[in-house]
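Changelog excerpt

This revision adds worked examples to the README so contributors can see how folded entries look when concatenated. The first example is reproduced verbatim below.
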Amino acid sequence: MKLGINIGYSGAQLTVPVEFVQQLEQLGYDSVWAAEAYGSDAVTPLAYLAGKTSKIKLGTGILQIPARTPAMCAMTMQSLDQISGGRALVGLGLSGPQVVEGWHGVPYGKPAARTREYVEIMRKIWAREEPVTYQGQEYQLPYNGPGATGLGKPLKSILHGRQLPVYLATMGPVNIRNTAELADGWLPIWFSPKRAELFRPSLEEGFRRAGNGKSMKDFDIAAGCTVIITDDLKAGFETMKPNLALYMGGMGAKDKNFHNEMMRRYGYEEAAERVQDLYLAGRKQEAEAEIPDELCDELSLIGPKDRIRERLKDWEDAGVSTLLVQSRQQEAVEFMAEITGASKGA
């Protein structure tokens, strides 16, 4: 199992944890990922880290697909790949209607079609086999829709590079199936090894559609996992609840919250409803209190070292090949490098 870490997105000020990432590189961590919402972007911190590190891979976790054209994303990530010496990992996701239409000012469209077309266009750009043309539901190259001049010209990338590894952050069965078919890896959101069988049929169907014998051995599941070394499990779980309540209660509309839907799929229907109702009513602390400890435990490795060591096997058995450690606890990041063997290859 490889290790990575996601430094997330900024608050009011953008700071890049350079020394922390340099330490992780020395510990043998394989990748560092940056996120974006509606503040800092995901690429700029990685470009800065590219100049401060030498071998750790640089992943976007995630770039919002509706925020950039496929060509702009292909250009940006190939630029990052070249200035970093071939270390870029392209993590993509759709975000949600509130952000897509409210912040980026574009229609949410057809998510499954948009993701497929986006990846296919980027692959064509990176391949440089011919000037790129594409006629899809969401994207057309050259563009020939309303407002077009008719002067659009198929072009081939000036920059020569490689086919970059593409990861998709998806949640629903159809989109997970498409991820297994189209991508090199999956960035599951709220992954629980206890629920791995919920996802396996979609993954296997995607591999079948891809053909060429594609299987789990060709595919990287890079799952986030909160890691805290503590003798007080309850206190450890409490640290997770504000973020869980934010996403499952407030990151989406009442009838369109993908995170809340995932909580329901895991069997926490009543808690999911209470969390959302309280959060949308502005009662955030009460919403946090409704997050079940059992859910926190499913999504994390929290407890004494022996408990963490024992439960790590559940994540490996569930097919997780890259564990994105969500922790700034010094003892925890060092311990994970030790028990996974990452430090031996540093």
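The second example, added in the same revision:
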Amino acid sequence: MITSTPTARELLTIAVDVAREAAATAHRMRVEGVSVAATKSTVTDVVTAADRAVERQVVAALRQRRPGDAVLGEEYGAGESGPADPDGVRWILDPIDGTVNYLYGLPYCAVSLAAEVAGEVVAGVVRNVVTGEEWTATLGGGAWRDGQRLHGSTATDLGQALVATGFGYDAGRRAHQARVVTELIPHIRDIRRMGAAALDLCLAAEGRVDAYYEKGLADWDLAAGGLVAREAGLLVTGLSGRPPGPDLVLAAPPALHGPLHDRLVDLDASGGP
């Protein structure tokens, strides 16, 4: 049994090793052909056989490396690991973020794995299954891609900001989100909707989009990518003083955060179904 508390760097090393192997499995299964295994919230919210296989692989690898830890995964919840010390380590996993992209062969899907200690995310990795791009962060240690430290966008004018967002699977929620976008888009440069929240957060951390917001994110969508964004200097919040979570996640550099936040509040972006 593991008794010592690992450092964030030690946890990141494990996360990177496990995520790389998981991404390789997901890539191989996509090349071989994938099938829809089930649906989740709606018939458009799919689970592939690869999602389940990758999650089982990651859980097995983490059990081998750190058998006393808990794991929260998107497909199996906490059921693949026993309860852990609340002050111990919990791993938060999205085996394939961007499952619909993955199913359709679009190169915008990723394995996302974060380590949480005593309720705080301290290490995270997001690895694109198709391209091999990899973003990492540790609490207080910065955010990185391919040896380059990330600092987010330098944009200061909301009217020139490229903003990423996403849409839920429920038809009512999509309609509300579409109304928000319709009212927001005249006030920004443009919208991008790529379909994988963890990657959107990493692109915002890198400045390849200027900001990102979305309603409906779960822990596994936010944990690793959110840490990458924060460590790149972005403010990652909810609206009106609330923390980031299912109501809304907004990730933006300080110069854009305030005006984008206020616009989203005016548009009731955290409201609707």
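Reviewer comment on example two: The chain has a mean pLDDT of 92. The first strand starts at residue 36 and ends at 39.
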